[in-house]
Design goal:
Elements: H1 16-20, H2 27-39, E1 43-50, E2 55-62, H3 67-76, H4 85-89, E3 97-99, H5 109-117, E4 121-131, E5 134-143, H6 151-172, H7 180-186, H8 195-205, H9 210-217, H10 221-235, H11 240-252
Antiparallel strand pairs: 1-2, 1-5, 3-4, 4-5
Helix pairs in contact: 2-6, 6-11, 8-10, 9-10
């Protein structure tokens, strides 16, 4: 049963379900469901690429029946001929990368036949993020039965891509995820918030509404909204998605908790 005050239908730009599924066995299903609701994504595949030349398929979820075969083929050899490879490996720092352009002519004939013609893929875009020497490369696809991404879908996908990339990176990193209380107590800029501001922000991250937060903390709705406003001002943000972005950057970045 869903706790009172939890969000049942994610609003535009809300990737809360995927974030809350980090570290769980159902993360792939929650991720593709979130992507489908937000931007009509049909299939998602995640690859881990290293500067040493290794490649692995970490996730294959959605509506492409031969997705597993495609993942194995890409990790086996085709990652070396991916036209996006240079853009991925030339990136510096831990900021998310967005790869918006897609055209079949970008790919060689054999690559195009296996990964697009045989699979029915008609459109894709991708995002990626580096953590240490590993690039988590997240690909979003649409098949012929769906048609290409609309302009609105592509815009929504680009808006959530940074949070999605960071969530994927955090999920597949081997270190355990620190609890939110520890994160808020030890990592800037979250540690600069007052205890009550931290209380409110942590519950925002858990998906609770302002009314539910008021009930849990035993304070008025006005107080909850005031603490949220002050916290956002201290953090230099104006929305829940930006709060998620801060937390995900801390979780997925190279300077992690011990």
């Amino acid at each position: 049963m869903r706790p009172k005050g939890m969000v049942s239908n994610p609003a535009a730009g809300d990737v809360t379900p995927a974030v809350l599924a980090i570290g769980r066995a159902d993360f792939p299903n929650i991720l593709i469901d979130t992507l489908r609701r937000q931007a009509g994504v049909g299939h998602c595949m995640v690859f881990a690429l290293t500067r040493a030349g290794a490649a692995r398929c970490l996730l294959d979820a959605g509506n492409i029946p031969i997705g597993g075969d495609l993942g194995a083929a890409y990790a086996g050899q085709f990652h070396e001929s991916d036209p996006n490879r240079d853009a991925l490996f030339e990136a510096e720092g831990d900021a998310p990368i967005m790869l918006r352009a897609f055209a079949p002519r970008m790919y060689g004939a054999r690559y195009r036949k296996i990964f697009f013609n045989d699979s029915g893929i008609v459109d894709k875009c991708a995002t990626a993020i580096w953590t240490g020497d590993t690039c988590f490369y997240v690909n979003f696809y649409r098949i012929a039965a769906q048609g290409r991404f609309s302009a609105a879908q592509r815009q929504r996908l680009e808006a959530v891509a940074p949070a999605i990339a960071a969530s994927v990176a955090r999920h597949f990193q081997e270190r355990p995820t620190p609890d939110l209380a520890t994160l808020f107590a030890t990592r800037a800029p979250l540690a600069a918030l007052t205890p009550r501001e931290q209380d409110v922000c942590r519950r925002i991250l858990l998906g609770l509404s302002s009314e539910a937060i008021s009930q849990v903390l035993g304070i008025s709705l006005h107080s909850t909204l005031t603490y949220r406003k002050r916290a956002y001002e201290r953090l230099g943000i104006s929305s829940q998605s930006q709060l998620f972005a801060i937390v995900l950057r801390l979780l997925a970045g190279p300077h992690r908790l011990n």
